[in-house]
């Protein structure tokens, strides 16, 4: 794929679809009382939520679906939009990142299998335009193939964008951890016990004392009663 020039950067950007249009891939698969409805399409997350109910009612009416489908369609769309919006405002890394996109689709009587590279940092890319060119180059006349190809690309880009958010979050936490370690004062010679008391909790200090006691206690156990009495007598003489 030969896309438009990208603005490569190592700095994080705010989460959004790495395409010209920030559209959410929505997939529905609902079954009620023996009736099943499956569909896949894109949705603008900036549209008012009231449009979701309007769309659900119109879809159920056009396809003559039972009234129960209206609520299920609306809820499924809203849930997926809420998940997408939960990432908005968060950082994600996209700079200098070329990702593989795989197509393995069957649309009506057309089987599509292909793999190509996509510039995740090219926010001018257009999956729909790519799909139209793809179908034209392969002489695919079925009008449903193009939208299916574009949707498959958007779904994969969405998953990659979510992973990029997680990577940016982990990197930020890692940097905070390293900065915190830099502020730990160096332990000076002769002050080890005092510094440990400051760095660790009292509970840990008690455990540490217990370990020291366990180390020295067996030495006394190795002495006989006569040897212990002799040591005590010697200490009394020295004290005089």
Automatic annotation (TrEMBL):
<keyword id="KW-0805">Transcription regulation</keyword>
<keyword id="KW-0539">Nucleus</keyword>
<dbReference type="GO" id="GO:0000228">
    <property type="term" value="C:nuclear chromosome"/>
</dbReference>
<dbReference type="GO" id="GO:0006338">
    <property type="term" value="P:chromatin remodeling"/>
</dbReference>
<dbReference type="Pfam" id="PF04855">
    <property type="entry name" value="SNF5"/>
</dbReference>
<dbReference type="InterPro" id="IPR006939">
    <property type="entry name" value="SNF5"/>
</dbReference>
<comment type="similarity">
    <text>Belongs to the SNF5 family.</text>
</comment>
<keyword id="KW-0804">Transcription</keyword>
<protein>
    <recommendedName>
        <fullName>Chromatin structure-remodeling complex protein BSH</fullName>
    </recommendedName>
</protein>
């Amino acid at each position: 794929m030969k896309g438009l020039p990208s603005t490569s950067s190592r700095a994080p950007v705010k989460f959004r679809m790495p395409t010209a249009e920030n559209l959410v891939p929505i997939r529905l698969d609902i079954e009620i009382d023996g009736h099943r409805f499956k569909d896949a399409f894109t949705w603008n997350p900036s549209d008012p939520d009231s449009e979701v109910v309007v769309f659900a009612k119109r879809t159920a009416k056009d396809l003559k679906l039972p009234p129960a489908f209206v609520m299920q369609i609306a809820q499924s769309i809203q849930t997926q939009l809420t998940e997408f919006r939960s990432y908005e405002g968060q950082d994600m890394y996209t700079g200098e990142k070329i990702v593989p996109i795989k197509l393995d689709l069957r649309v009506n009587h057309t089987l599509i299998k292909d793999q190509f590279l996509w510039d995740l940092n090219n926010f001018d890319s257009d999956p729909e335009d790519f799909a139209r060119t793809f179908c034209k180059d392969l002489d695919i006349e079925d009008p449903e193939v193009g939208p299916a190809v574009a949707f498959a690309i958007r779904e994969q880009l969405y998953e990659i964008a979510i992973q990029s958010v997680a990577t940016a979050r982990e990197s930020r936490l890692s940097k905070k951890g390293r900065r915190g370690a830099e502020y730990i004062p160096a332990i000076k010679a002769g002050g080890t016990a005092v510094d440990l008391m400051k760095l660790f909790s009292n509970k840990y200090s008690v455990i540490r004392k217990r370990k020291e006691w366990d180390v020295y206690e067996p030495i006394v156990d190795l002495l006989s009663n006569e040897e212990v009495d002799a040591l005590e007598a010697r200490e009394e003489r020295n004290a005089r």
